[in-house]
Write a structure and sequence with these properties.
The protein is α/β, with parallel strands linked by helices and 255 residues long. It has one domain: Glycoside hydrolase/deacetylase (TIM Barrel). Helices cover 39% and strands 17% of the residues. A seven-stranded parallel beta barrel has the order 1-2-3-4-5-6-9, surrounded by four helices. Strands 7-8 form a two-stranded antiparallel sheet. β1, α1 and β2 form a beta-alpha-beta unit. The two termini are 33 Å apart.
Length: 255
């Protein structure tokens, strides 16, 4: 039987976290960079524990005024320090609540930059791995994030986006470009079904991309997010697809 994970980015002040946590199987929790604070982190982790939702950290550039969606230029050691601070905060609270943090998913501009730049992604992921050698990476499939995760030996969860357009190269269309966010609910559902059942995503120019993604992101910061997420889940289950957090891939090394 086919199964797939549904994940959402939570703790970003949208007021929909409780509702989305009834639908998704993984929660990527903002940890004080682009959004979120100790109170929101603790609340979401408690709900994850109560409902059996897999929890992950969602760090980004420390730029809440622009929601972490602009690339900041700074020394690498300063950026790595920001990521460590966010990870320390969410891990400390997770330990308090008694919820394991299963993965890290980068946010916004930081995610896009690591999807494009291998050396940059390796530096970011190596920093996270040094803090927790068991933590997986929720990574955009077919991007440099996947290669970086493999390079540093982190477990890997391949991700695709329900409501974001793709370039022919398999990256996300920049939000500044028309059509980058897909608002047609029927089209979003059709894309999710095709990905889950056939392993395919259609790019903005019509190119058919192959994908091994087994986690679909349903954004929590778009209008109608809860209804869309529920419709996506209902459609997948209606086609016999089981919703649940699967096991990460672990790179096998030769003896």
């Amino acid at each position: 039987m086919t199964s797939i994970d549904l994940n959402a980015d939570l703790g970003e002040g949208m007021g929909t976290d409780e509702d989305l946590l009834e639908i998704v199987s993984s929660a990527s929790i903002a940890c004080g960079g682009h959004a979120g604070d100790a109170a929101t982190i603790r609340h979401i982790l408690k709900v994850c524990k109560a409902r059996g939702v897999r929890a992950g950290a969602h760090p980004g550039y420390v730029d809440p005024a622009r929601f972490g969606r602009f690339r900041l230029v700074m020394p690498l050691d300063k950026l790595l320090g920001q990521i460590r601070s966010q990870m320390f905060l969410v891990r400390f609270i997770a330990d308090e609540v008694g919820v394991p943090l299963a993965y890290v998913k980068l946010h916004g501009a930081l995610a896009n930059q690591t999807a494009e730049e291998l050396a940059f992604a390796i530096g970011i992921f190596a920093t996270v791995q040094a803090m927790d050698g068991q933590m997986a990476v929720l990574a955009l499939d077919n991007s440099e994030q996947v290669r970086a995760a493999k390079a540093v030996g982190m477990p890997l969860i391949r991700e695709a986006y329900a409501d974001r357009a793709y370039t022919a190269e398999g990256l996300l269309v920049p939000r500044t470009q028309e059509g980058a966010v897909i608002h047609d609910a029927e089209l979003v559902i059709e894309r999710c079904l095709r990905l889950a059942k056939d392993g395919e995503i259609v790019a903005i120019d019509g190119t058919v991309l192959k994908s091994d993604a087994r986690s679909i992101c349903v954004h929590g910061d778009t209008p109608g997010a809860v209804e869309l997420a529920r419709d996506v889940r209902d459609a997948l289950e209606g086609e016999g697809v089981t919703i649940g957090a699967g096991e990460p891939e672990v790179e096998q090394t030769e003896a």
